[in-house]
């Protein structure tokens, strides 16, 4: 009986009974970003599109209305909002970032360029600058009113992941480098760390208190790393997104904006909620039938958006367009799923 139930779960894209977003992208979703000011969701996709939905919520009833979209010339890999919620930035394989004045209905314009695909983009309101990380091994800062970057920072390798909580910025590159910047002095590396995880970095997330960061790898592990040398004893790694001998990538790390617990999402099709301080998993959700490549909380943490689609980790030969439909789902976290728990005893071990 248990085998049968696992089979039915594995073939169901929505075993957690989440709310399905209307008119999802026609190809895999690469990033999800909520407006910091409203329940407006943006998704970028391998179908070269950036799409926007308005999410309406009335108690437990949630609906989505497709609002607008723009095109890139090639697959789009990343997105970010301006802090005032007016504007979306998107970058990808066409080596450019487009600035889309979404709320005013304006036309998108190119505001950043690299020599290779742009993997990460982040708006830094404290500096009024856009940061872009590329596979051309550079990090660039842009004043969107000027055609040239205000600073280009050489990276040791291709940018794979980026997280900002001013003044902390962490860039994860190929070859397991983690480069830490203090944005009060952005032209100098603050610290360079070799990832505590043995395999390729997939995602990073700065602590809300800027005292450290999470790093996730392709090998189903997350590292919790503090920057202060006096706090190194608090560092640890843990396994997640594994099923028996099967090991899956950790694709996404998101801190809850209120409770400061965090979510992981992986290529096993599962998402989980964790409390790093008590070292506990708060909630494990059922596995979806395809990987979860990206996820995000809305601005008050009442909605968790995640995509379910092929993530290309097994190559083009395992991609079946007939069955590989892309979905975006909305989960409404219960407080018990995302609110931290007091440490058990003194060790707080799981």
TrEMBL record:
<feature type="repeat" description="WD">
    <location>
        <begin position="22"/>
        <end position="55"/>
    </location>
</feature>
<dbReference type="InterPro" id="IPR015943">
    <property type="entry name" value="WD40/YVTN_repeat-like_dom_sf"/>
</dbReference>
<dbReference type="GO" id="GO:0000972">
    <property type="term" value="P:transcription-dependent tethering of RNA polymerase II gene DNA at nuclear periphery"/>
</dbReference>
<feature type="repeat" description="WD">
    <location>
        <begin position="69"/>
        <end position="110"/>
    </location>
</feature>
<keyword id="KW-0853">WD repeat</keyword>
<keyword id="KW-0677">Repeat</keyword>
<dbReference type="InterPro" id="IPR020472">
    <property type="entry name" value="WD40_PAC1"/>
</dbReference>
<feature type="repeat" description="WD">
    <location>
        <begin position="111"/>
        <end position="152"/>
    </location>
</feature>
<feature type="region of interest" description="Disordered">
    <location>
        <begin position="1"/>
        <end position="28"/>
    </location>
</feature>
<dbReference type="Pfam" id="PF00400">
    <property type="entry name" value="WD40"/>
</dbReference>
<feature type="compositionally biased region" description="Polar residues">
    <location>
        <begin position="1"/>
        <end position="17"/>
    </location>
</feature>
<dbReference type="GO" id="GO:0006405">
    <property type="term" value="P:RNA export from nucleus"/>
</dbReference>
<dbReference type="GO" id="GO:0003723">
    <property type="term" value="F:RNA binding"/>
</dbReference>
<dbReference type="GO" id="GO:0005643">
    <property type="term" value="C:nuclear pore"/>
</dbReference>
<dbReference type="InterPro" id="IPR036322">
    <property type="entry name" value="WD40_repeat_dom_sf"/>
</dbReference>
<dbReference type="GO" id="GO:0043130">
    <property type="term" value="F:ubiquitin binding"/>
</dbReference>
<dbReference type="InterPro" id="IPR001680">
    <property type="entry name" value="WD40_rpt"/>
</dbReference>
<feature type="repeat" description="WD">
    <location>
        <begin position="250"/>
        <end position="284"/>
    </location>
</feature>
<protein>
    <submittedName>
        <fullName>Uncharacterized protein</fullName>
    </submittedName>
</protein>
């Amino acid at each position: 009986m248990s085998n049968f139930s696992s089979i039915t779960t594995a073939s169901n894209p929505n075993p957690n009974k989440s709310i399905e977003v209307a008119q999802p992208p026609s190809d895999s979703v690469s990033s999800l970003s909520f407006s910091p000011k409203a329940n407006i969701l943006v998704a970028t996709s391998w179908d070269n599109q950036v799409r926007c939905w308005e999410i309406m919520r009335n108690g437990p009833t949630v609906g989505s209305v497709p609002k607008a979209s723009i095109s890139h010339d090639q697959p789009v890999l990343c997105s970010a909002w301006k802090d005032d919620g007016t504007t979306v930035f998107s970058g990808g394989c066409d080596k450019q970032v487009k600035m889309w004045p979404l709320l005013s209905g304006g036309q998108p314009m190119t505001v950043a360029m690299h020599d290779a695909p742009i993997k990460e983009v982040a708006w830094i309101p404290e500096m009024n600058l856009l940061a872009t990380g590329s596979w051309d091994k550079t990090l660039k800062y842009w004043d969107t009113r000027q055609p040239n970057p205000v600073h280009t920072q050489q990276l040791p390798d291709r940018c794979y992941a980026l997280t900002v909580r001013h003044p902390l910025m962490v860039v994860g590159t190929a070859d397991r480098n983690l480069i830490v910047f203090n944005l009060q002095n952005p032209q100098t590396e603050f610290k360079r760390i070799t990832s505590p995880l043995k395999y390729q970095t997939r995602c990073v997330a700065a602590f809300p208190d800027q005292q450290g960061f999470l790093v996730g790898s392709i090998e189903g592990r997350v590292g919790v790393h503090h920057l202060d040398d006096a706090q190194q004893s608090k560092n640890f790694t843990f396994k997640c997104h594994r099923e028996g001998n099967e090991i899956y990538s950790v694709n996404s790390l998101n801190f809850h904006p209120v409770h400061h617990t965090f979510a992981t999402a992986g290529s096993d099709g599962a998402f989980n909620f964790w409390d790093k301080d008590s070292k506990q998993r708060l909630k494990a959700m059922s596995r979806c039938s395809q990987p979860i490549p990206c996820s995000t909380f809305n601005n008050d943490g009442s909605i968790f958006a995640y995509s379910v689609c092929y993530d290309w980790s097994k190559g083009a030969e395992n991609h079946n367009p007939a069955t590989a439909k892309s979905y975006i789902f909305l989960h409404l976290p219960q407080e018990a799923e995302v609110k931290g728990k007091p440490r058990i005893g003194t060790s707080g071990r799981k």
